[in-house]
Amino acid sequence: MAQPTKRVQPNYLKILMEILVALAICFLAAAVGGMVTEPNLGWYEGLEKPSFNPPDWIFGPVWTALYAMMAGALFWIWQVDVPAEEKQTAYRWFGAQLILNVLWSVAFFYMHSPLLGTLDAIALLIAICGTIAAFWRLSRGAALLLVPYLLWTGFATVLTFTLWRLNG
To answer: The whole model's pTM is what?
Structure first.
């Protein structure tokens, strides 16, 4: 007669802490970007904008959702049961895109440079694609959580480029 298998209970406190750490990492980047952006909104308001520029109120909710999805993707990768070495490339890509995300705010808002913002946004798109590819190898769900971020950043890149062309 077969012995019943013992069920392992998940460590809910550990899971909660990992979720909070993933959220803290992503929203810390958001906070740094916000600290650079906020004092320069007057400059931004004075720029000539294209017809497809979204209303200002849309940026906060969209970025909040995107940072939450980034955190969800990172948490998901942490849960993948493979040796830590196999996750290193994914972590490097994730870190690179997060740094480039913050640097966009520095380039565009702090330095008042839509041109540097455009160049950073292109690098950011590459880093997001690298992150998605690295995550895909480990978890398709985690990779798919980053697709809206890629799409929004693509739109933001076009918008930043257009702002440079209109105001450069």
So the answer is: 0.93
Per-residue pLDDT of 1-17, as tens digits, reads 677 777 878 899 999 99
What span, in angstroms and rounded, lies between the C-alpha atoms of 103 and 119? 11
10 lies in some domain:
no
Please state the domain count of the chain.
Answer: 1
153 CB-near residues (< 8 Å, 6+ apart): 121, 124, 125, 128
Is pLDDT above 70 for 125? yes
Domain range for 35 is 15-47+60-167
Environment class of residue 86 by beta-carbon count within 10 Å: exposed (0-12), middle (13-18) or buried (19+)? exposed
HSE at residue 138, side-chain half, CA atoms within 13 A, is 27
Instruction: Please tell me the distance from the alpha carbon of residue 64 to that of residue 98, in angstroms, as a whole number.
Output: 14
Count of CB atoms situated within 10 Å of the CB of 60: 10
User: What percentage of the chain reaches a pLDDT higher than 90?
Assistant: 93
